[in-house]
Design goal:
alpha/beta; Rossmann fold; N-(1-d-carboxylethyl)-l-norvaline Dehydrogenase, domain 2; eight-stranded mixed beta sheet; 15 helices; 8 strands; globular
Length: 353
């Protein structure tokens, strides 16, 4: 395969996930990797590695790093892979450079602080892009494993089924199996909220809670995610899929997860301000938790795990005390919170897209 000629696929964001997706694309066609700075682009182009994000992984010649948004002009498929906290600024800066004909895929997992918008909504608003042109990808996708050639799966969510099908045809590989879903709301909430639960799971591991305790925390974390999803209008079954339970298992269980690592570091008694700069990338759960709590408050949903994650990160509460307080909560009917789900199923309302 030759990397000659303008690439028709562009990825905005050269972190671990953006670079990994560039590797996947480069197996079939050239790809432009739009970096935040000219220095980063020059380093990746010269070294043919992104050593800090994906140690030991070579960048093929079909991956062309750049820092110039004008290089998006030839693309008919643009993937957005920047940290959630920088998404609005990035889209404001590059939105006009994305061609009107291009399909747009968000692989960003989070909720925007203040607005409580999902990432596809931020991309559409800040980039002046029609919402039905923006899809979302989520699932158990630990970047280093995928970059190393290990098998993985994910789901592409779009209100326009033809858009999702085009993206699957373009991005799916034998070792990277993609499914589709029309429930964009549910898929994006799963991707954002599971990172918060992973911080709690990492803290539980750091304190030696054992597999039983961690399994209980993950299960109740998933219930917390579902409560918010149901209240927001998502399809509850999305939370039983790759973006939901699949990603919860991977992110809460893997040492490769930055959110899990953050929880472990909190369990050592370290403060968030000390940990933030030492992580090998962005722990999105720390930037999402307050927006998740804000959305839960707006919708009248109880999210005790998210609130304790907030307390550990920003209120100086010890992880030990947070987990003890969660364990001390009053027992209740396990399914009491899902009456709304049953009511919606009974009326034939399976969820919003």
């Amino acid at each position: 395969m030759s990397a000659e000629g303008p690439a028709r696929v562009a990825i905005v964001g050269s972190g671990a996930w953006g670079t990994t997706l560039a590797l996947i694309i480069a197996k079939v066609e050239p790809v432009t990797l739009v970096c935040h700075s000219a220095e980063t682009a020059a380093r990746l182009a010269a070294e043919r590695r992104n050593e800090r994000r994906l140690p030991g992984i070579e960048l093929p010649e079909a991956v062309r790093p750049t820092a110039d948004p004008a290089d998006l002009a030839a693309a008919d498929f643009v993937i957005i892979a920047v940290p959630s906290a920088h998404l609005r600024e990035t889209m404001t800066r590059i939105g006009r450079s994305i061609p009107d004909r291009a399909d747009v895929l968000s692989v960003v997992k989070g909720l925007e602080a203040g607005t409580l918008l999902r990432m596809t909504e931020v991309i559409a608003a800040a980039g002046d892009i029609a919402p039905d042109r923006v899809a979302a990808l989520s699932g158990p996708n630990l970047a280093l494993e995928i970059a190393s050639g290990l098998p993985a799966s994910a789901v592409v969510a779009a209100s326009d089924e033809a858009l999702a099908d085009r993206i699957v045809a373009r991005l799916s590989r034998r070792e990277f199996r993609l499914y589709t879903n029309t429930d964009v709301l549910g898929v994006e909430l799963c991707g954002a909220l599971k990172n918060v639960i992973a911080i709690a799971a990492g803290a539980a591991d750091g304190l030696g809670f054992g597999d039983n305790g961690k399994a209980g925390l993950m299960t109740r974390g998933l219930a917390e995610m579902m409560r918010l999803g149901i209240a927001a209008g998502a399809n509850p079954l999305t939370f039983a899929g790759l973006a939901g339970i699949g990603d919860v298992i991977a992110t809460c269980g893997s040492k490769l997860s930055r959110n899990h690592r953050l929880g472990e570091e909190l369990a050592k008694g370290r403060a968030w301000r000390e940990i933030e700069g030492s992580l090998p990338g962005v722990a999105e759960g720390a930037y999402t938790v307050d927006a998740a709590i804000g959305l839960a408050t707006r919708l009248g949903v109880d999210m005790p795990i998210a609130r304790e994650v907030h307390n550990a990160l920003f209120e100086g509460k010890s992880v030990q005390r947070c987990l003890v307080d969660l364990l001390a909560r009053e027992s209740k009917d396990e399914l009491a919170d899902f009456r709304a789900w049953a009511d919606r199923l009974a009326t034939g309302d399976g969820g919003a897209g």
